[in-house]
Predict the 3D structure of the following.
Amino acid sequence: MTPPPDISALIHRLTRLEPHERHLIGLTGAPGVGKSTVSARLVDQLGSKLVVVPMDGFHLASSVIAGTPRDRRRGAPDTFDADGFVALLRRLRDQFEPVVYAPRFDRGIDDPIAGSIAVRKEVPIVLVEGNYLLHTAPPWSDLSEILDETWYLELNDDSNRVDRLIARHVEFGKTVEESEHFVRGSDQSNADLVAATRSRADLVIIEHGDGTLTTARPTSPSDERQG
């Protein structure tokens, strides 16, 4: 099957990997940028050769953070079980076990569900999806030694990302006012934190308004000043 042009460059990059080894590829970007959509497109093309493991499965449960300051800024780095996430990726890297079970986040109940994703030993590519894969604070910083490479996804028009997030919150029960307040407050703070890691990526993927994707090399602030 010939991959559609919007992901052909990504498919080409993945199919060049050594087929007899396990590869962990990170896909990061701000909340609402479309990581899950790109992941689904890759699964459609690669089938059983690729399994997606989302960082969102390591959200701390609502019951754990209820009534604490973290409840008001859910999605920030310290509202995840980051040590558990790193430990799971080490298990996936080591490939000692016939199957490793990863959690996923269920937006319907707004909580993670353990043991939802089976990653069998023979699967060659694990696509790890999440906001803080390039974050430099420990234990997130350990991910640079575990992931083979990390891709950074962004939109050419960031206002589309904000609109998507507001619509997502409304879909799952918040009012428009509550959604806008959260997206322009806590979510935006998280997005700014993620954006600061862009230059550390191995590849930048840009989604355009028509859904097509282009790739570019990351730029650091010093590159941009020189340009």
Observations:
- The CA atoms of residues 32 and 165 lie 5 Å apart.
